[in-house]
Amino acid sequence: MDAFYVSVSLLDRPELRGLPVVVGGGARGVVLSASYEARRYGVRSAMPMGRARRLCPEAAVVPPDHTRYAEVSRGVMEVFRSVTPVVEQVSPDEAFLDVAGARRLLGDPVRIARLLRDRVADEQGITCSVGIAAGKLVAKLASTRSKPDGLLHVPRERTVEFLHPLPVGALWGVGERTAEQLRRLGLHTVGDLAHTPAPTLRRALGDALGQHLHDLSWGRDTRPVVGGAPARSVSAAETFSRDVDDPDVVRRELLRLAERVAARLRATGSAGRTVSLTVRFADFTTVSRSRTLAEPTDLGRQVYATARELYTALRLDRARIRLVGVRVEQLVDAGQQHHQLTLDEWPEDWRRAEHAVDRAAARFGAGAVRPAALIATAEDDRSRP
Question: Torsion angle of alpha carbons 160, 166, 167, 172, nearest 10°?
C-alpha cells in the first residue's frame, strides 16, 4: 500500500488530500507515516515528531487510529485472497502473492496486478504499488521502484539487468554493518558483489551470509510464498513522556508491556520461546537483548521476569531512557505445549489466574484487573507513556 496509514487516515479527512500530512502523536512520539507531499520536505517514518515539525511546519498532524488501519488491512487481504489463496502477509500493508494458479482464469500476471490495484482502489479507497517478478526479492524491489500508485514487471530474463545497478544495501540481509564491510571490499553495487567469487564472500561475511548474498545478486531466490503464515512475533513498546532514568519506572513499564504482550498471545492461542528487550536512549541509540526459554510461554509473569533480567544485565545505572519494548518470538500453538512440572512453582495456577484476568478484561475492559505495581500514583503519571 502507498503511505498506508496516511491513506487510511485521509479516508475520513478528505479535505487534507494533496497537503503534507504526518501520522503520529505528541512532541516526543515518532512519525508512523508521512504523505508523499510531506516526504518532499525530508519527513520519513520513524523520525522524531519534533524533527518532522521543524522540517515541515505546515504539515497536518493526524493521530493514529489502529482499529481503522486493521479494518482496511483485513479488507485488502480479502481482495488478495479472492484472487489466490497463496498470500503471505508480511505487515498490515504488504503481502506477497503467488498468482501462478490464477493465470488460467484471470490472465497473465500484469493483468492480475491491474485487477488487484483496481479492486483495492474501488473497495478500500486507497492505492497500492505492485512489483511482478519470478522471486520475492525482485518483486519487493520492483514494488518499491514503482511507488506511488504504480506497477513494474521485471521478466525473469531481465532479473540480472534490473538487480546489478542497485546499491548492495538493496539486498535482503545487508544491514548497515554488512554494507560497510562490503564497501571496504570495494563492493558498492549488486553487480560488484555478483562478480566477486562466492568463496571470497564466504570468507569475508561467513559461509551462510556470503553464499546467500551471492545467490541473491544473480536473482537466485527460491523462497516460496507461504500462504496463511502465522505471526512471527508479538510485541509492544512505549515512548515515555519524558526521558526516564529511574529503574523502578522502567521496570513498571516492562511489567505493563509484558502483560500486554502475554494477553495478545493468549488471545491468538499462541506461546513463544524467545523474549526480547529493546531499550532506546535519549540520543536515539538502541540496544536489544533476547533470551530463549526452556519451553514456550504465554504468561505475563514469565515474560516480565525474563525482560526484567535482561534489563538488569544491561547495568544501565542512571542512563536516560526514551523507549522500552518487549517482544516474544518463536511462536507455537499454545494448545500443543507440554509443561515441565517443577517443585517450586505451580504454572497451571498462574495460567488459570491470567486467563481469569482475560475474562475480566473482556467483560469490564482492559485494565480492570492488573498487577498492584501498575496502579498509577500522581508521581507515576508524570512519566507514564
Answer: -60
